[in-house]
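**User:** Everyone, produce a chain:

**Assistant:**
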Amino acid sequence: MTAPSLVTLADVREAAAHIKGVAHRTPVLRSRTLDELVGAEVFVKCENFQRIGAFKFRGAYNAASRLSADQVARGIAAYSSGNHAQAVALAARELGTTAVILMPEDTPRSKREATAGYGAEIVTYDRYTGDRVAIGEALATDRGLALIPPYEHPHVIAGQGTAALELIEETGDLDALVVPVGGGGLIAGSATAAKGLRSATRVIGVEPENGDDTKRSLEAGRRISIPVPRTIADGQAADTPGELTFAVNRRLVDGIALVNDEQIRDAMRFAFERMKLVVEPSGASALAALLAHRIDRLPRRVGVILSGGNIGAERFTEILGG
């Protein structure tokens, strides 16, 4: 299951056909101001307009809808800090079944309430002391549920890659693609799509400075674990790259840029004030890397994925300082 060949461009294209009419085909926006500030033609893929407000619905639905009728009838389980939780909850509702979601106790209220709003049962744990994978697997086993992990699954990765596939179909060839990195599923799928369509495209991931597990792992050539990061980008608070995602990303990703929380805030503010987009911290990190010039030798035509916009008004105001 860890072989990179298990996720291919053909898988991403199959996923695109599979989710068509269920997931949204999100818009690609341009900004002259952004182009001038960055020094490139930037094409912004707005996954904040995806169902549940983030790219995660693509992979969750692609995986859930492929379960057997018996598995669907028994129900679905997942563990997530928020967006995958909502995605699985909505996918379960679309398929007429139930979902049980393991979420950190400090998950932003808006994400927790949205997950419950889709009909899911929520079980909480302490992300700083508990092993969510072990707890989630035990929960699924005890209740006889089908577990859909947030990134360690070929159908999830292929589904996430459909965002990049759509972007490139709309814009044509890109010289570079900049993607937020948490567990690595979005960039694994995106790199599979982008490199499959044009091997010369540079694929650059972006992590918070306090959560650079993927950067360290790629540099070391093996998966590195770090303390659970504390960052405003809660959706990127991963401590270890996934086994499958790392196998793919080690082969296809060209580099990782790092951004700090203040640069993420600046990107959120820019998206809101200049592009009229509400983006959560994790969703803004790739844009932050461009605006803060954290990517060396940026080429002319650049795609960037805004991965999500799940943030409440209170939290949005708090993060931006008032």
Observations:
- Residues 78 and 148 are 5 Å apart (CA to CA).
- The first strand starts at residue 28 and ends at 29.
- The longest helix spans residues 154-171.
- The chain has a mean pLDDT of 94.
